[in-house]
Amino acid sequence: MFDRRSILTRGALGAAGLAFAPRMAFARAATPKRFVFIIQRGAADGLGVIGAVGDPAFAGIRGDLAADVASGTKLDTTFMLHPAMTNAAGLYGKGQALFAHAIASPYRDRSHFDGQNVLETGGSRAYQVRDGWLNRLLGVLPADQARAIAVAATVPMALRGSREIASYAPSSLPQASDDLLQRVSMLYQGDAQLHGLWSEALATRSLTSDLSADDGRNAAATGALAAKLLAPDSGARIAMIETGGWDTHTGQRGRLAAQLKGLDAMVGALQAGLGPLWADTMVLVATEFGRTVAVNGTGGTDHGTGTAAMLFGGGVKGGRVLADWPGLSTAALYEARDIRPTAQLDAFIGGALSSHFGVDPARVMAAVFPTSAKVVATEGLLWV
Q: Where in the sequence is the signal peptide annotated (predicted)?
């Protein structure tokens, strides 16, 4: 016998093959603040997103990839933003975008799966922690009686934990028959919370696909849908959007530009959709690790270490790049090929969360990054 939750879960599993489709997960909490975590699965090239044009070694070691940022937005005397990120550049100009460079999680190897596990669980090594930091974050926020909700093919690791998360996958719906959709809709008629989300999924199920698909318009639609689900007073407060396609081993120039255009459209749609609520919204963009500094033989880059992370939002103390820049000379690189990390992603996320939700930084670090609890959260990321 299947109850409605198991039907949703089984339907979600059918979409597991859509590994690179943007997917969303949501959770409720009694707070006026909105928080969105956009994960870049595949190890995004931080140096391709924010080029260190002021570093004497940059142009020589990046070769053709150096041209990617040549026409971008100048952020300061060292860094330029990729030209595909026009919305991000606008937010940076308004002081609502903050970038951190030469940053990394505690993970120091080169496996996507292990690196994503560390990023999503908040542990110091892969599979050390069994639940996700977004789930644990719910425990330090004001609680209400609403159950947590996920809208995703599977509940992302970051949202798994003791707090119940139900899930379904709008991207799997085109494979379902009209009769099945109608019957599931009838099941939800008496549930105001799930019926509303199900209706949204039915209305927009054709919108979610690859981040770069349809010239970024699908990514924008995903951001707009997330904003609609976050905006209501009774709606979700925490969202996670999974994006793929960042593993650029070959032909990086065109692929990265398309990915960044989609990401930029997603952030722009979130801002537009949330309207005045943008003042109480923070968007974190992070990836499991970076990529090699030098270009490989196929016009791409390979798995690396240090990378870039981004914060967007009305309260973000932006318009700057946080970086204790290690340099790009061979001697300065990590293992002679990667950006050497000089900042801890755990501390960056912990500092952002504590400021955004008004919770003691030490409490946030202990709950969200238990193995890094003694790490001091980064201060001064938001206007508070």
A: 1-27
